[in-house]
Amino acid sequence: MATSAAALHPFVYLASQSPRRQELLQQLGVRHELLLPRPDEDAEALEAELPGERAHDYVVRVCQAKAVAAHARLTAGGHAHAPILVADTTVTIDDAILGKPVDADDAVAMLARLAGREHEVLTALAVVDADGTLLPAALSASRVRFAAVQADALRRYVASGEPFGKAGAYGVQGRAAEFIERIEGSYSGIMGLPLFETAALLRAARIDF
């Protein structure tokens, strides 16, 4: 149990429906509650790219925008006040941002672009503390190299359904691991929640874990 002269918060709101991020928070021993978008919120609009935007700038901006939206959701919904944790992950190659695939053809095209090459996975973190202050964002950058992969193997992977809802059309913790030759950086960051940076931000927001 952490100790401090000032009161610590017993839990954090997680503004994400990703099961992987929930599992990673549990790995840290952080108690959390979900704070998800309401049906009337256009969450996808926050992920729209700006013309000429670099991937590093994009993922931080989107993460911070989601944090502001989550805080507005908190204050409007009568929830107990507590810090909010938000994360956003993107994949980039050739200065292009690869978000979530819109359909099977899009997923196959993304994976074919990654096959036999190295790409970067970026995960930004933002925390709104219990007083409503947006803390400085953190950014985890990792590099992943895919082996050359036959087109039929990519199609089988896409048919499994795993690529959907994932930036770059793959999950490092799932079946796509068979394509990955090498990783440099944070495995948990590639999953969507870099634990080193997350722990530091949560301590800054005075979460007890």
UniProtKB/TrEMBL annotation:
GO cellular component: cytoplasm
CDD domains assigned: Maf
Keyword Hydrolase attached: yes
Residues annotated as the enzyme's active site: D88 (proton acceptor)
Single biological process term from Gene Ontology: nucleotide metabolic process
EC number: 3.6.1.9
Reactions the enzyme catalyzes: UTP + H2O = UMP + diphosphate + H(+); dTTP + H2O = dTMP + diphosphate + H(+)
Superkingdom of origin: Bacteria
Principal localisation: cytoplasm
Keywords for the protein's UniProt record, in alphabetical order: Cytoplasm, Hydrolase, Nucleotide metabolism
GO function term, MF aspect, one: dTTP diphosphatase activity
Necessary cofactors: a divalent metal cation
Family in the record: Belongs to the Maf family. YhdE subfamily.
Known function: Nucleoside triphosphate pyrophosphatase that hydrolyzes dTTP and UTP. May have a dual role in cell division arrest and in preventing the incorporation of modified nucleotides into cellular nucleic acids.
Protein name: dTTP/UTP pyrophosphatase
